[in-house]
């Protein structure tokens, strides 16, 4: 039986440094070993590299090291900006761990708002204060404003003695409850073995006597374990920060809004020329908190060697495309990969499209080819006052009428809290108002379900059946799709010396999607969390590694820096790549801010 240490001045750090055990047979390169040692010594680092440079392998070993000791694991937060990326490292999404909400208005996720939310949620507050090692994979996809807000909020909360005290009381109560349960279990087991007592026998007095003597009951925590009066002046409150990602890939997505336009206008008045583009950039490295990390000693490491692509010609092609190069040799390499009009592939690859409309048209064409009957799923859309969003979502999650306390109903009549849904734009939500499905349709999951199992936003699957079930919320029978999902690469099944993707079948029910769109209002959509999946946007594919793809970039060219590179680097080999047309020179470009950052950060 494990017990907690009595009167330990730092019960969350035993001083033990567990050895780093290999988690796979891959031998790390010398540069990767040096990087791993820096991380295990507690240094903040940012590391990057070309596609297949082994970034995920190094990060996985560091995570294994941190999780090999329960006390270190308690103080470690493993995150990524998307569900797909989080599933690759057995982590969670950055937004869910730090309480960020979907909203195009910057101040809705300001540091002050995050502090306010944390003080209202003890679990969220505990994450901010306990974390002394924060891992963010695919940091290139994180918006600068969110990155800055999390850093400032961590500093403010770690320097708040009363907040630390609140977390200590919460942890102590949890520890005592756990120790008491363990004491009962051990005492019951001991008494049953010596006295032949049945499990149902009243052992209350014996249990109390046994548990009172247990070291676990004297477990103590103190606020000073976590409190740092200077934390507010340190990036991320002084925590170790481990960042991984390639800024040559797509920039973070920013939702257009009036508030964002006003922000850009304000910045434009302050800066001009090259400085203006730098400060308008959404990349985290252009922010003040990144600068603080660098000044506080954060190491920046470039991993050079690529392990993913065995074909040296394709590897060289990707390396050059990554930095914006384009010439006749690269055009010649792609020319044989162009699909002819009569091309037929037994296993249809996923198509990566530059524009959402192109992907939607391609999906509709493929759906019409299926002969099975079509089943339609219409969403339930609402606009609500912001103060009523939380109780409405709670009722929805419990399959209750969300407007039980008002005269409003689920079908859209309004009388107070429920506002006119037709007056708002719902296109920012990741599911359509009307979803058409058929048996055999390829689909993509639109919401994280079970990150640990690889069932996350972006997981691909196929509809295999429909099941009729009674919906408590709608008070009627509805058909729900049954989907066979191909789980992510981290969730695999061993077969001899090889691993194959794991497939699992789930019935997919309705989920709630919301977004705050104004100061006082939010939109809510209740819909099946699926999209047709024969084609997806290149933006959605970032973080995926695929066996085969069709890349569709129009003659007008890519519209975002790094878009072409992201599309081509999703596939493992040149043989798995097909293209609808060769790239135009205008499609290959990178952000000048990214070029400047890499030239300065890795000048040597």
Describe what this molecule looks like in 3D.
Its cofactor is Mg(2+). Pfam families: PIF1, Pif1_2B_dom. Residues 41-154 form the DNA helicase Pif1-like DEAD-box helicase domain. The chain is an alpha/beta fold and 604 residues long. The chain is 34% helix and 19% strand. It contains 20 helices and 23 strands. A 6-stranded parallel sheet has the order 3-2-4-5-1-6. Strand 18 and strand 19 (521-527) form a beta hairpin. The N and C termini lie far apart (53 Å). Residues 1-25, 195-220, 401-419 and 489-500 have low confidence and may be disordered.
- Continuous helix count: 20
Shape: globular
Q: Give the strand tally.
A: 23
Main β-sheet, spatial strand arrangement: 3-2-4-5-1-6
Whole-number mean pLDDT: 79
Under CATH at level 1, the class of the largest domain stands as Alpha Beta
Rg over CA atoms, rounded to whole Å, is 26 Å
Give the biggest beta sheet. 6 strands, parallel
Helix content: 25-40%
| Low-pLDDT windows of residues | 1-25, 195-220, 401-419, 489-500
Reported CATH architecture of the largest domain: 3-Layer(aba) Sandwich
Oligomer: single chain
Count of folded domains = 4
> Which class best fits the helix and strand makeup?
alpha/beta
Q: Give the CATH topology of the largest domain.
A: Rossmann fold
Strand content: 15-25%
Distance between the termini: 53 Å
Kindly report the name of the CATH homologous superfamily of the largest domain.
P-loop containing nucleotide triphosphate hydrolases
InterPro entries: DNA_helicase_pif1-like_DEAD, P-loop_NTPase, Pif1-like_2B_dom, PIF1_helicase
Protein name: ATP-dependent DNA helicase
Keywords: ATP-binding, DNA damage, DNA recombination, DNA repair, Helicase, Hydrolase, Nucleotide-binding
Organism: Chytriomyces confervae
């Amino acid at each position: 039986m494990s017990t907690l240490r009595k009167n330990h001045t730092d019960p969350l750090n035993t001083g033990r440094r567990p050895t780093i055990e290999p988690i796979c047979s891959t031998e790390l390169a010398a540069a990767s070993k040096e990087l791993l040692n820096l991380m295990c010594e507690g240094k903040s680092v940012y590391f990057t590299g070309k596609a297949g440079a082994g970034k995920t392998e190094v990060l996985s070993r560091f995570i294994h090291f941190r999780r090999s000791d329960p006390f270190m694991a308690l103080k470690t937060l493993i995150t990524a900006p998307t569900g797909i990326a989080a599933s690759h490292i057995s982590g969670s999404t950055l937004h869910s761990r730090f309480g960020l909400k979907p909203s195009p208005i910057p101040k809705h996720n300001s540091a002050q708002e995050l502090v306010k939310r944390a003080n209202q949620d003890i679990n969220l507050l505990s994450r901010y204060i306990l974390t002394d090692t924060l891992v963010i994979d695919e940091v290139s996809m994180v918006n600068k404003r969110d990155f800055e807000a999390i850093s400032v909020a961590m500093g403010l909360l770690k320097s708040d003695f009363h907040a630390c005290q609140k977390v200590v009381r919460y942890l102590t109560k949890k520890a005592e409850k756990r120790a008491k349960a363990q004491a009962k279990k051990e005492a019951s087991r001991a008494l049953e073995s010596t006295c032949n007592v049945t499990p149902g026998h009243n052992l209350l007095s014996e249990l109390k006597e046994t548990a009172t003597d247990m070291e676990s009951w004297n477990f103590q925590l103190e606020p000073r374990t976590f409190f740092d009066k200077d934390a507010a002046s340190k990036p991320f409150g002084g925590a170790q920060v481990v960042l991984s990602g390639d800024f040559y890939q797509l920039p973070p997505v920013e939702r257009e809004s009036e508030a964002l336009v006003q922000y850009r206008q304000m910045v434009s008045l302050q800066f001009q020329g090259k400085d203006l583009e730098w400060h308008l950039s959404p990349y985290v490295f252009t922010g003040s908190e990144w600068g603080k990390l660098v000044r506080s000693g954060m190491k920046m490491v470039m991993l050079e060697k690529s392990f993913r692509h065995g074909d040296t010609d394709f590897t060289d092609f990707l390396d050059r495309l990554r930095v914006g190069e384009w010439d006749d040799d690269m055009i010649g390499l792609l020319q044989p990969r162009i699909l002819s009009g009569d091309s037929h592939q037994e296993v249809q690859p996923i198509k990566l499209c530059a524009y959402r409309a192109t992907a939607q048209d391609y999906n509709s064409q493929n759906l019409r080819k299926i002969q099975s009957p079509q089943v339609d799923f219409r969403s339930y859309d609402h606009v609500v006052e912001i103060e009523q969003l939380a109780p409405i979502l709670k009722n929805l999650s419990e399959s209750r009428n969300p407007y039980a306390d008002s005269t409003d109903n689920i079908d859209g009549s309004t009388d107070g809290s429920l506002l006119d849904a037709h007056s708002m734009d719902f296109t920012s939500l990741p599911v359509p108002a009307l979803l058409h499905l058929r048996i055999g349709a390829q689909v993509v999951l639109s919401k994280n379900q079970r990150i640990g199992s690889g069932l996350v936003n972006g997981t691909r699957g196929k509809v295999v059946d429909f099941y009729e079930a009674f919906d408590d919320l709608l008070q009627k029978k509805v058909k729900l799709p049954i989907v066979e999902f191909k789980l992510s690469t981290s969730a695999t099944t061993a077969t001899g010396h090889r691993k194959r993707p794991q497939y699992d079948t789930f019935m997919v029910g309705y989920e709630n999607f919301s977004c705050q769109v104004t100061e006082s209002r939010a939109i809510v959509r209740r819909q099946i969390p699926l999209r047709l999946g024969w084609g997806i946007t290149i933006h959605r594919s970032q973080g995926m590694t695929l066996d085969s793809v069709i890349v569709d970039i129009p003659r007008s060219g890519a519209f975002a820096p790094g878009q072409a590179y992201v599309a081509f680097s999703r596939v493992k080999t040149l043989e798995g790549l097909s293209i609808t047309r060769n790239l135009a020179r205008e499609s290959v470009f990178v952000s000048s801010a990214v070029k400047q950052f890499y030239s300065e950060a890795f000048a040597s």
